[in-house]
Amino acid sequence: MERNLALEVVRVTEAAALSSARWMGLGNAKAADQAAMDAMRRGFDAVSFSGSVVIGQGERDEAPMLFTGERIGGGDGPDLDVALDSLDGANSVSQGRANAMAVVAITDKGGLFRAPDTYMEKIAVGPRAKGAVDLSLSPTQNLENIANAMKCYVEDLTVVILDRPVHAELIRSVREAGARIKLIQDGDVSAAIATAFPESGVDILMGIGGAPEGVLAAAALQCLGGDMQGRLRPRNDQEVEQARRVGVKDIERIYRIGDLVSGTELMFAATGVTDGDLLRGVRFFGGGARTHSVVIRRRSGTTRFIEATHRFDRRPVY
Q: Which of the residues 138, 174, 211, 285 has an alpha carbon 20 to 30 A from that of 14?
């Protein structure tokens, strides 16, 4: 995979972020999501590669664009697998809340776990706690192991958890252990990746969120040297059957980060739509806008934060 591809793909996430950010706070999550999909699809047409979407915006019959199994890219160049979410946090955008972003991960063929469209129990940490997480243990035990790895007290840790009724017991356990908690409404991809950056103030992500989003977060953490484990949590027999169709044999299996993302040629790009733990959101001004993105490559270990100024009086290349 050519290193320039990473910088080409960030233009795609920028396009999705710019289009969806126009809908911030307007109460229309569907319109924000569609704007991001349309822009990302157009952006991919200008990228010189042949991509197969293994994690997309739903199944072929459910999504008008960027569905799982769709072919994207300019058609020439390397043949690669793509995981994407043109807008992770459509509800956050519609309500003007934090942590929404446009996300793409690309790797060699077969390098991504084809997660079914269901939920996943997750625990994610940055490089300082690599090897210290285990979903088979209790939250208290994990917090103690992470604190030992990071050479701090449990009370020094900050845990990000989605604010959902299903997490009532998890929140109680974390509070009893003494760790601090940051509750978020949406955007656990951003929060998971933020654990790899000490300046974010986030140390651990715990709880249940989307399985496809779990693979996207794992891709970034794999590049950054972090760690993550996941276990599928389907809500009904239909979701269990969907998992079986994509090859899942053991629903209770704990997936390690290497199971979720095994590709060696791996890159990740994201652009903020609204302000979050990892990225700033789109800032509009007369005649243009500014975006804040991150681009990460596994092979080189390089992380680039990119601030771009976009001029609307000039036509973009996508």
A: 211
